[in-house]
């Protein structure tokens, strides 16, 4: 990044480890554990991340911006933890709401404080690349279901639904989304591989099709 980042080496080092983060959260620890159990890397994934992290300009450090109440966080961060563990990347976590200056460096489309955000740095703490929120296939599926919901429930507003209407909204998505989560985890890994390959000057085609 061309700007002077607020993420200094010292600030990165003082952030939470994944284990300390899990120990500190008051909600959804069971969800983190569940999605850690469903997140898997192929042997080829492991080899890619290990080889990348071992390079002088490779992604040796990962800063994750998160909040435990967010479904994208408790679904996605365990995937990031698997990547870090398999590759030897040092992964640290900061809370979005306590670190707005960090979050504002990595806004989705330059506007939204979307989480999780995974920011990769070299071992000498030079910015490499970052990934935000959820894979493209998840955005597409959620958009499709929102359109479907609006057809089935034309009088309900997705943004303002409360009470019984909110429960209707939750039930609609809970009945349709979970079947897609394993594919989203796979796509998260694939997208991060592509980003890192591009950052390292390699062709993104080195990330195999799934």
Q: Can you give a write-up of this model?
A:
The protein has 210 residues and is an alpha+beta fold. 49% of the residues lie in helices and 11% in strands. The protein is built from nine helices and four strands; from the N terminus they run H-H-H-H-E-H-E-H-E-E-H-H-H. The protein has helices spanning 9-13, 18-24, 29-38, 43-54, 71-87, 100-103, 136-152, 163-174, 181-199; strands at residues 61-66, 90-95, 117-121, 127-132. It has a four-stranded mixed beta sheet with strand order 2-1-3-4, with helices on one face. Helix 3 (29-38) crosses helix 5 and helix 4 packs parallel to helix 9 (181-199). The radius of gyration is 18 Å and the shape is globular. It starts with 8 loop residues before the first helix and ends in an 11-residue tail after the last helix.
